[in-house]
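Hi R.,

Here's the chain you asked about this morning:
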Amino acid sequence: MILLIEPLITIIQKAIVAHRAVGITLDGGKVMEIYPHRVTIIEGRLSLVGESCRQGALAYYSIEIIDKVVELEEISYRPNYTNLEVDGMISLVRRLSGNEHRLVVKFNHDAMINGPLPLLTPPYHHFVSPNTVFNLHGEMIWSATVELSDRLCSWLITMKDQIEILGTDEIRNSYYQQCKSLSGYRHIEGKKAS
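And the predicted structure, written out as tokens:
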């Protein structure tokens, strides 16, 4: 499935950067003109967040139900919503669905010294209110409001030797379950089994 959606996402991302509308065809044949704002995870699915060019309403569409995307160079659309309002809508949907969590991660001291720091802005994740502080031991504590998803846990696993997840319990448990499902990793420690 990922191979099929990557070309769609590429077109959407180019349109976002160029501030252009896209035409999307949904799997039921419905055609829409959308001004895209983000590609992010909403309700566990990779989704396009954008405005209908006809009604001006903000909505989101799972990438899985989009069959075709074309950039519409001939349509000049002025967006009705600011980035802050789009962020607010994404947060509201997550809160209403119970999928909004505060992720708190501590990067160990060795990771800070041996750098480089891991990528704190992975693709398709929408972090609300990110915050970074350093404790007295020189460890970086990073937090953001996120949606719990397999993609989030997979991203955290890429940093497993550099981090400790401090919160929330739901994120920590989901992360450990994914680590456990990977052969050769222990449930609690997140390190290679001997």
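Residues 2-18 form the longest helix (17 residues).

Let me know if you need anything else.
M.
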